[in-house]
Design goal:
By secondary structure, the chain is of the alpha+beta class. It contains 6 helices and 10 strands; from the N terminus they run ααααββββαββββββα. It is globular, with a radius of gyration of 40 Å.
């Protein structure tokens, strides 16, 4: 059996006062910051501010370069379509579509009839000027999705043609922020019984050539 002499008159533990004693915290002496560190921080701050200023000074003002293109309401007058006229015949009535003129987008359209009677054809012209977004990012993807699979050289930055044989075709052209599209449609007629009458159609093989020529002239006219 272990005796406990400390509990029978022995001296009490001497650590009680040490554990419970509250000591005043020593004041911390401020350590001076080295001058080279302070100078380095100031220099870094100055360089950052200078770089930010240079970045701001060289940053575009938010306006997109339209390359001379402008929104036009008189698209029927700008679209001469002389190349198609040589193939399709006499130019007939025109019908301007609605005109949209917004700070980020401009759109206009026009329909033109060619020929007479069963030889009549319709051409629709569409012009879109993107004043904010870049249409080139999705241009090829959209053309492929809509069946415009034939690349066309000699007009704009990119161009694709979709051939519909006797029923016409579609040419879409990208030039900078501008997109021009020419759609050629064959006109169909019905008899008194409501039946479609096919009295023959023009030979539209190679129609992409005059369409391309007209697109080149139209793009130039849209910059005037």
């Amino acid at each position: 059996m272990i005796s406990e002499p400390e509990l029978e008159g022995g001296a009490p533990f001497g650590t009680t006062e040490v554990l419970t004693e509250e000591r005043e915290p020593r004041p911390r002496r401020a350590v001076p910051r080295p001058l080279w560190a302070l100078g380095g921080a100031l220099a870094a701050s100055a360089l950052w501010a200078g770089g930010l200023y240079a970045y701001d000074a060289g940053r575009p003002d938010g306006r997109v370069d339209l390359g001379g293109f402008q929104g036009v309401e008189d698209l029927c007058e700008r679209a001469g379509l002389k190349g198609l006229g040589m193939v399709l015949g006499e130019r007939g009535a025109t019908g301007p579509g609605p005109f949209l003129d917004d700070p980020v987008l401009s759109e206009s359209s026009c329909s033109v009839n060619y020929g007479r009677g069963d030889r009549e054809q319709s051409v629709e012209v569409r012009y879109t000027l993107h004043k904010g977004a870049d249409p080139g990012i999705e241009f090829a993807a959209r053309a492929k999705h809509e069946g415009l699979l034939l690349p066309v050289a000699g007009v704009g930055e990119q161009a694709f043609f979709g051939d519909r044989g006797e029923d016409g075709g579609t040419l879409r052209v990208l030039d900078g922020q501008a997109v021009v599209q020419l759609d050629l449609y064959r006109s169909w007629y019905e008899n008194e019984d409501g039946e479609t009458v096919d009295q023959g159609a023009l030979d539209l093989s190679g129609i992409d050539v005059p369409m391309t020529q007209d697109a080149v002239e139209l793009l130039a006219a849209l910059k005037k």
